[in-house]
Amino acid sequence: MTTAEENRAPADTRIAVGSLNHVALGVRDLEASVRFYVEGLGMRQTLTKETSDLTPSLMRLPAHAKATTVFVQGASRVGQIELAQWNLPENDEGRPKRPGDIGMGQLSFPVDPDHIGALHARLVAMGYEVYSEPTTSLIKNYGPVTLFLCEDPDGNQVELIALPSAETVREFRAQAGKDETR
User: Mind listing the pLDDT tens digit for each residue in 85-141?
Assistant: First the structure.
């Protein structure tokens, strides 16, 4: 992908969506999912509600479909996750799609670089499936990132990533530019 493609924008930017409002996840066990996102990841619970009678028709679900939903949100207070336990039978697989399949591949959350190790330790101590220790790698034209991945109680892949500061990214890009001119 070229730089021009990376910076592509619509012709009329006045007609565009804002930031992400929320992502909805269907869950098997609402209490277990709330525990993972609130106690495990440190998010806060913002709202608990039942779906309305209008919900099934809006979402193309059977008329009898109902859900209890809990909204959780990270410290940035931008975007939320809606955890919904429906009264519908599970799909044939009973698990979310695998990374690489069409559809949602993972949820990714920024973590303070000073806290990523402690967050990893907390999730391991709580018994969640964590794929590896926090690992640091260099991203071309960006800088160093430290991350690890785990699964929520329903098998959704969750990435926890410590991103470089804006200043570090600028310094990294400036140094990369010097290296390319040699």
Answer: 988 876 655 555 655 565 677 899 999 999 999 999 999 999 999 999 999 998 888
State the chain's maximal CA–CA distance in angstroms. 67
Three-class secondary structure of residue 146 per DSSP: strand
Please tell me the pTM assigned to this model: 0.79
Q: Read off the pLDDT of residues 132-161 as tens digits, 9 standing for 90 and up.
A: 999 999 888 888 999 999 999 998 999 999
| Both tokens assigned to 150 | 């785990």
CB 141 within 8 A of CB 7: no
Tell me the domains of the chain and their CATH numbers.
18-90 (3.10.180.10), 105-182 (3.10.180.10)
Query: Nearest to residue 159, comparing CAs of 106, 84, 83, 118?
Result: 106
